[in-house]
Design brief:
There is one protein chain. This protein has helices at 17-26, 80-89, 114-131, 135-156, 170-178, 232-241, 309-313, 364-377, 409-415, 422-441, 495-500, 505-520, 532-540, 553-562, 573-588, and strands spanning 33-38, 46-52, 55-63, 69-71, 100-101, 164-167, 187-191, 198-204, 207-215, 221-222, 324-334, 337-345, 350-358, 388-393, 397-402, 407-408, 444-445, 454-458, 461-464, 471-472, 480-481, 502-503. By secondary structure, the chain is an alpha+beta fold. It folds into four domains: 17-113 and 271-300, SH2 domain (SHC Adaptor Protein, 2-Layer Sandwich), CATH 3.30.505.10; 155-265, SH2 domain (SHC Adaptor Protein), CATH 3.30.505; 316-402, 2-Layer Sandwich (Phosphorylase Kinase, domain 1); 407-595, Transferase(Phosphotransferase) domain 1 (Transferase(Phosphotransferase), domain 1, Orthogonal Bundle). The strands form six sheets. The chain has a five-stranded mixed β-sheet, covered by helices on one side. Strand 12 and strand 13 form a beta hairpin. Helix 10 (422-441) packs antiparallel against helix 15 (573-588) and helix 14 packs antiparallel against helix 15 (573-588). It is globular, with a radius of gyration of 28 Å. 40% of the residues are buried. Bound molecules: adenosine monophosphate. Adenosine monophosphate (AMP) binds at residues 331-334, 339, 354, 386, 401, 403-404, 407-408, 452-453, 455, 465-466.
């Protein structure tokens, strides 16, 4: 994710206050000369450094809960560029207006911050080790969960640092510092006790010094009386620049024997999920319950049940009846019969499953439909699509799928309206768009995308289901032509589906727009009481549904794009996914510091 200030010529990146002062002095220290730099303390924040009467003034710019930016006590702006433009016209509390940008040297890019250069690697390492994900599943985890993962990583990243030694005694810390060479500034961080407090031990003049790392009520870390940071690793990075009360600046890390940094960690087994610890790596402890919400990757259905090659060996389309236990509990029903809960015993594990049981085998048409659905599902393997485990021919024909216990999205949202935030709805709709990008890329059309066919694994994890109407397109085709109109969900269908029976990923995009509308209305029925034919004339007359009350403007704009009349002009899922993702990230990527806005002006 690029820094939103990356393109601003006066953004200097991660430079220290002293470096900023040098740059501004070189430019002549005229009143109103200014630059923007990355805040070293709060993730995602900036510092605006302004010259006035040969003095420097530094204003922290916080990134707020809703993704906007503001100087403490000042107005909010949608980005750092807008904020600077605003203060160039109106001082509004600053010492003066911003008059002259202090530009970076031509041809240079902003200096990357510690987290900028670590983020990508850390995200990958974290996902790889904590969930043993690889390949496509890892990439999808990163795309859909980046803001949450970044927060997790930011607050637990120190556990992955070579200088972090975990819970060791002070004497053991000393022993480790004294072993090998002992340059000044050699340091380590250790847990002091069970209470989650930390200590910093460092060498100086062949002597070990120990400092307690202070944590204030809001959870920020500092040296006694020193600058406060959101995370331990930011504090460490800062102490590499400034002693901030220590006898010396931190230099070389004393590497922990248990260090799990990329280079030291054992390589994880490729492409499979084998459970924590199976590769010799122990994932960092999870924050206490309540502080962290479950991520899709925490569920057993994030990765394919067959991602373990051992299980794959035995994978067959038809499952043995004795490996299937069917519960009496019914999860739902459809034309074909009912969906029951069950358990499928695999070679190494048991998984919860949903079993579509065919009502009567005599109805050949229905059986064919179920076989077609199975044929489609068999070819799909994506974390945001309900996976088929197999078919089973026993007392009746059964389609066995992985379980999504939360049930259909529309019902879930209407029953839990009070608990579910708009951000949560955006997150789920982003996951649906990821599943649809996968289908688009595989050249499949769903033809029945609707909130009733999005099932929830949990409140934060959605999967697309019901492939009863789906079609695989030929390699050279980009649409499917239905010979006859069947029992079609007209309210979800694009004009070309109704008028010309033409179905493509672009008509799925239209349905995605309707699904979004259902989601942001928390499960209402689209087009109120209108009947199918009335909806058709409503659309043909150029009308579209109004924005749901709770729907953010950006999301309504995406919906309207999905309802562009001509399919050639409608965005593809690749475009839709990016738009929803950007919005999702902008509202959920809240640095830890924002919970406690910084009051001080000087940094
Ligand atoms: P369908 O005909 O595929 O729409 O399934 C009918 C109903 O069965 C759905 O609305 C769900 O309530 C339930 N159902 C279907 N598949 C699953 C699944 N994989 N996990 C949980 N519930 C399911």
């Amino acid at each position: 994710m690029p820094d939103p200030a990356a393109d601003l010529p006066f953004f200097h990146g991660s430079i220290s206050r002293a470096e900023a002062e040098d740059v501004l002095k070189l430019e002549g220290m005229a009143d109103g000369l200014f630059l923007l730099r990355q805040c070293l303390r709060s993730l995602g924040g900036y510092v605006l450094s302004v010259v006035y009467e040969v003095q420097l003034h530094h204003y922290p710019v916080e990134r707020q809960m809703n993704g906007t930016y503001a100087i403490a006590g000042g107005k909010s702006h949608c980005g750092p560029a807008e904020l600077c433009e605003y203060y160039s016209k109106d001082a509004d509390g600053l010492v003066c207006t911003l008059r002259k940008p202090c530009l970076r040297l031509p041809g240079t890019t902003p200096k990357p911050g510690v987290f900028d250069s670590l983020r990508e690697n850390m995200l990958r390492e974290y996902v790889r080790h904590t969930w043993n994900l690889e390949g496509e599943a890892m990439e999808q985890a990163i795309i859909s969960q980046a803001p949450q993962l970044e927060k997790l990583i930011a607050t637990t990243a120190h556990e992955k640092m070579p200088w972090y030694h975990g819970k060791i005694k002070r004497t053991e810390g000393e022993r480790r510092l004294y072993s090998g060479v002992q340059p000044d500034g050699k340091f380590l961080v250790r847990d002091r006790d069970e209470m989650g407090t930390f200590a910093l031990s460092m060498m100086y003049g062949k002597t070990a010094y120990h400092y307690q790392i202070i944590q204030d009520k809001s959870g920020r870390y500092s040296m006694p009386e020193g600058t406060k940071f959101d995370t331990i690793w930011q504090l460490v990075e800062y102490l590499k620049l400034k002693p901030d009360g220590l006898v010396y600046t931190l230099r070389e890390p004393c590497v922990s024997p248990n260090s799990s940094m990329c280079a030291i960690a054992p390589a994880p087994p490729s492409g499979r999920k084998t459970g924590p610890g199976s590769n010799g790596y122990t994932p960092p402890p999870k924050p206490p319950a309540g502080q962290q919400r479950p991520l899709p990757m925490d569920t057993s259905v994030y990765e394919s049940p067959y991602s373990d090659p051992e299980e794959l060996k035995e994978k067959k389309l038809f499952l043995k009846r004795e490996q299937l236990m069917i519960d009496e509990v019914e999860l739902g029903s459809g034309n074909f019969g009912c969906v029951k809960k069950g358990v499928y015993k695999m070679r190494k594990k048991q998984i919860d499953v949903a079993i579509k049981v065919l009502k009567s085998e005599n109805e050949k048409g229905v059986k064919d439909e179920m076989m077609k659905e199975a044929g489609i599902m068999h070819q799909l393997d994506n974390p945001y699509i309900v996976r088929m485990i197999g078919m089973c021919q026993a007392e009746s024909l059964m389609l066995v799928m992985e379980m999504a216990p939360g049930g259909p999205l529309n019902k879930y949202l209407s029953s839990k309206k009070e608990q579910i935030t708009v951000e949560n709805v955006v997150e789920l709709m982003h996951q649906v768009s990821l599943g649809m990008v996968y289908l688009e890329q595989k050249n499949f059309v769903h033809r029945d995308l609707a909130a009733r066919n999005v099932l929830l694994v949990n409140q934060h994890y959605a999967k697309i289901s019901d492939f009863g109407l789906s079609k695989a397109l030929g390699a050279d085709d980009n649409y499917y032509k239905a010979r006859t109109a069947g029992k079609w969900p007209l309210k979800w269908y694009a004009p070309e589906c109704i008028n010309f029976h033409k179905f493509s990923s672009k008509s799925d995009v239209w349905s995605y727009g309707i699904t979004m509308w259902e989601a942001f209305t928390y499960g209402q029925k689209p087009y109120k009481k209108m009947k199918g034919p009335e909806v058709i004339s409503f659309i043909e007359a150029g009308n579209r549904m109004d924005s749901p009350a709770a729907c953010p403007e950006v999301m309504y704009n995406v919906m309207k794009d999905c309802w562009i009349y001509k399919h050639e002009e409608r965005p593809s899922f690749v475009v839709v996914e990016e738009q929803v993702r950007n919005y999702h990230y902008s509202i959920s990527k809240k640095p830890a510091a924002e919970a406690q806005p910084e009051k001080t002006v000087e940094v």
